[in-house]
Specification:
With 257 residues, the chain is an all-alpha fold. Helices cover 63% and strands 2% of the residues. The protein is built from 8 helices and 2 strands; from the N terminus they run ααβααααβαα. Helix 2 runs parallel beside helix 6, helix 3 runs antiparallel to helix 4 and helix 4 packs across helix 5.
C-alpha cells in the first residue's frame, strides 16, 4: 500500500522522535514530581549507581532476553511459529537501532513511574506491601488497556509481569533489574523475533507467522504477552529473581532515604 509522505512509520528517526519525545518527557515529569512535590532525592527512587545495582541491571537484561528467546524457540520447535526467512539470515535495519533506543527509554520511563514513583509514594504513606504490589501492577495493566489488539488475557499477563517487576524492585531495593528486564523483554519480542509488542507492530530481524489455532500459546495479534507461554516465563522469573536476590543478600523493601 502507498504510504503518505508524512507517515512517520516510513521514517524511523521521525517515528523515534515522535514516540521517544513523549517517553522522555514522561521520565522527566516523574522525576520532577518526585523531586519537587514529594521532596525526595532522585536516587531514592532506586536509581543509585553502584556495582551491585549494575549487576542487577545485567541480570535483568539477561533474564528478559532469555525468557523471550525461550518462548520463540518453544513456539518454533512445536510448529506453532514459522519463519519467512532463514534463521541465519536476519534482516538488520535502521529499526534495529531506533527501536533499541525507544525501548531503553520505555524501560526507564515505565519503571520509574509504575514501580519507583507509585510504590515509593505509597510506601511513604504507610500502605501495606501487598497493596503496593497490587496497585502498581493494576495501574500498569490498565495503562496498556488502549493498546491495539488488546485481550483480557494479555492484560492479565501485563499485570503479572507488573507484579514481577514490583518483586524485583522489592527484592533489590533498586529499579535497575526491572528496567533491564523490561528493555530486553520488549526489544527481543518485537525487534529481534518479530512478535507484536503488547499489540503494536513489530520491526524484527525475522518475519514470522503464527498458527491461528494456537493463540492461547502465541497470544495472537497482541503478541506473546497474550499467551500462556508468557505466563509460565513470568512466573519462572519470580523464582529466578528469588534465587538471585538470596545470593545477592538483599533484604526487604525499606526506604534508605
Amino acid at each position: 500500500m502507498h504510504r503518505e509522505i508524512f507517515d512517520p512509520g516510513y521514517y524511523p528517526w521521525i517515528e523515534l522522535l515522535m514516540n521517544g519525545g513523549g517517553v522522555v518527557g514522561a521520565i522527566f515529569s516523574s522525576l520532577l514530581i518526585w523531586r519537587y512535590i514529594n521532596k525526595k532525592k532522585i536516587v531514592a527512587l532506586g536509581l543509585e549507581l553502584n556495582s551491585l545495582n549494575m549487576k542487577d541491571f545485567v541480570f535483568g537484561l539477561f533474564l528478559g532476553g532469555a525468557s523471550m528467546t525461550l518462548i520463540f524457540i518453544l513456539l518454533l520447535l512445536t510448529g506453532q511459529l514459522s519463519l519467512k526467512v532463514s534463521l541465519f539470515a536476519p534482516d538488520f535495519s535502521i529499526y534495529s537501532l531506533t527501536f533499541l533506543i525507544l525501548f531503553i527509554a520505555v524501560g526507564f520511563s515505565e519503571e520509574i513511574f509504575f514501580r519507583g514513583y507509585i510504590m515509593k509514594t505509597m510506601e511513604d504513606r504507610h500502605n501495606s506491601k501487598w497493596l503496593l504490589y497490587v496497585m502498581s501492577a493494576l495501574i500498569f495493566s490498565l495503562f496498556h488497556g488502549m493498546n491495539p489488539n488488546v485481550s483480557v488475557f494479555g492484560l492479565i499477563n501485563i499485570g503479572l509481569v507488573g507484579l514481577l517487576f514490583s518483586y524485583m524492585y522489592d527484592a533489590t531495593k533498586s529499579l535497575w533489574m526491572p528496567i533491564g528486564y523490561h528493555i530486553t523483554w520488549n526489544y527481543f519480542q518485537g525487534n529481534v523475533f518479530g512478535f507484536p509488542v503488547s499489540g503494536t507492530d513489530p520491526h524484527g530481524l525475522y518475519q514470522i507467522t503464527t498458527e491461528s489455532s494456537a493463540k492461547l500459546l502465541t497470544g495472537g495479534n497482541f503478541g506473546p504477552e497474550g499467551g500462556l507461554l508468557a505466563t509460565f516465563f513470568i512466573i519462572a522469573g519470580v523464582f529466578a529473581t528469588n534465587m538471585y536476590s538470596k545470593k545477592r543478600g538483599s533484604g526487604s523493601f525499606e526506604s534508605k532515604y
